[in-house]
């Protein structure tokens, strides 16, 4: 009587593992792009830092700061005051957190001496 073998041979198992490895190497990079989400998170973080600095400057100065004064409260390397807001550096690229002269965030600042009453978000 012949014995019936059950199971897979070693070659069949190796082929399946190789195919799964190839599929994983091709499919995973297409679905996982962390650089875009990291940049979005960095922009949100910098916006939050400028907004916190704005709140601290109001408390410290007992009034609304100018763009230049606000820039001194932002503790970020490469941050500076520009006419339209606070310029910050993220991964070597300059972004501007917009500032506004009214509390409804409708009128952008036009000079570094303008009083800031609202801080927007990096687009």
Can you walk me through this structure?
The protein has about 120 residues and is an alpha+beta fold. The chain has a domain of about 90 residues. Helix content is about 45%, strand content about 15%. It has 3 helices and 4 strands. It has a 4-stranded antiparallel sheet. It is rod-shaped. The mean pLDDT is about 90.
Write a concise synopsis of the structure shown.
It is built from three helices and four strands.
Low-pLDDT sequence parts: none
> What share of the residues lie within helices?
40-55%
> What is the 3D shape?
rod-shaped
DSSP summary: helix tally: 3
Whole-angstrom Rg: 27 Å
- Secondary-structure-based class equals alpha+beta
Strand order of the largest sheet: 1-2-3-4
Reconstruct the topology from this structure.
Elements (H helix, E strand, L loop, with lengths): L9 H22 L2 H28 L5 H7 L6 E3 L2 E6 L2 E8 L17 E2 L4
Task: List key phrases describing it.
123 residues, alpha+beta, 4-stranded antiparallel beta sheet, 3 helices
């Amino acid at each position: 009587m012949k014995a019936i073998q059950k199971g897979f041979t070693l070659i069949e198992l190796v082929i399946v593992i190789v195919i799964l490895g190839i599929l994983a190497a091709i499919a995973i990079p297409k679905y996982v792009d962390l650089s875009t989400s990291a940049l979005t998170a960095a922009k949100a973080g910098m916006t939050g830092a400028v907004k916190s600095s704005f709140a601290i400057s109001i408390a410290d100065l007992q009034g609304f700061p100018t763009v230049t004064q606000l820039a001194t409260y932002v503790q970020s390397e490469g941050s500076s005051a520009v006419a339209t807001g606070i310029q910050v550096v993220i991964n070597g690229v300059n972004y501007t957190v917009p500032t506004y002269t009214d509390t409804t965030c409708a009128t952008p600042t036009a000079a570094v001496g303008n009083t800031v009453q609202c801080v927007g978000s990096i687009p």
